[in-house]
Amino acid sequence: MNNSPSLLPDYLKILREKWREVPSSTQDRTFSSDLLALADADLLRLWQGWYDDNCAGAGYSTRGWYHDLYAPLARTGGAWLEIGSGLGYDGIFFAQQGAQVTFLDIVEGNLQVIERLCGILGVKQVNFRVLTSLEDIRPLGTFDCILAVGSLINAPFDLMCAERNALATHLRRDGRWLELCYPRERWEREGSLPFSEWGKKTDGDRTPWVEWYDLEKLQRSLQPHRFETVLDINFHNHDFNWFDLTKRS
């Protein structure tokens, strides 16, 4: 496969077909187009149940812990960018804490669901941008925090280097880069499959690619930007890893 960054728009079309199917509960997925057909009350009821499943009780070890960890950072305000927003569990939470959140997603329907939810919930300091190419990143402005929860591991490394570099350009010096990935330990545990096949095991049959990351690989993908490590941990039985980096240059 030719992994030239110039192929990113074409690869985004492949990913868009997959990621219009978004994670709902910790075990299930749903199509954002189906959610848009619901009445507001039904949409909110479903979303709130899925949010609780992801962030409270047993789901606390998946998402809730980092919500608590970074709520104080969000309460200081500042501009946050969430990449690959899914159903907005993270971005909506941090906006409710006080951050000004821009949701960036490759699927317009996903953003439309989040925008409706923000309206229902009264979350106002939010913006929504569709990503179709790296050119869409240029006018975004500067951010204090960039958040990517499993959204930058779904294409070949060279393509993600190009996207991460473009995004990191918009992170201010001393800003925070927060990212959830899948670790090498999980890849090895699940058979060390080709990345073009591993995604079918981690995220369903329609997944074209998933690639593991560790700290060294993530920092390499962010070059030439230089980051200092705040937190680097595997969690949830090595299903996930979490990186908290501060931009230095």
Question: What are the salient characteristics of this protein?
Answer:
249 residues; Rossmann fold; two-stranded antiparallel sheet; alpha/beta; globular
Task: Write a compact overview of the structure shown.
The protein has 249 residues and is of the alpha/beta class.
Architecture overview:
The chain has 249 residues and is an alpha/beta fold. 41% of the residues lie in helices and 23% in strands. It contains ten helices and nine strands. A seven-stranded mixed β-sheet has the order 5-4-3-6-7-9-8, sandwiched between helices. Strands 1-2 form a two-stranded antiparallel sheet. α7 (157-168) links the parallel β6 (143-149) and β7 (171-181). It is globular and about 45 Å long. The relative contact order is 0.13.
Provide the β-strand percentage band.
15-25%
Characterize the biggest β-sheet.
7 strands, mixed
SSE series: HEEHHHEHEHEEHEHHHEE
The CATH topology assignment is Rossmann fold
CATH class: Alpha Beta
Number of strands: 9
CA gyration radius, whole angstroms: 17 Å
Overall helicity: 40-55%
Structure annotation, total helices: 10
* Spatial ordering of strands, largest sheet: 5-4-3-6-7-9-8
CATH superfamily: Vaccinia Virus protein VP39
Unreliable runs, pLDDT <50, ≥5 residues? none
Head-to-tail CA distance between termini: 32 Å
Assign an overall shape. globular
Mean residue pLDDT: 94
What is the total domain count?
1
Secondary structural class: alpha/beta
CATH architecture call: 3-Layer(aba) Sandwich
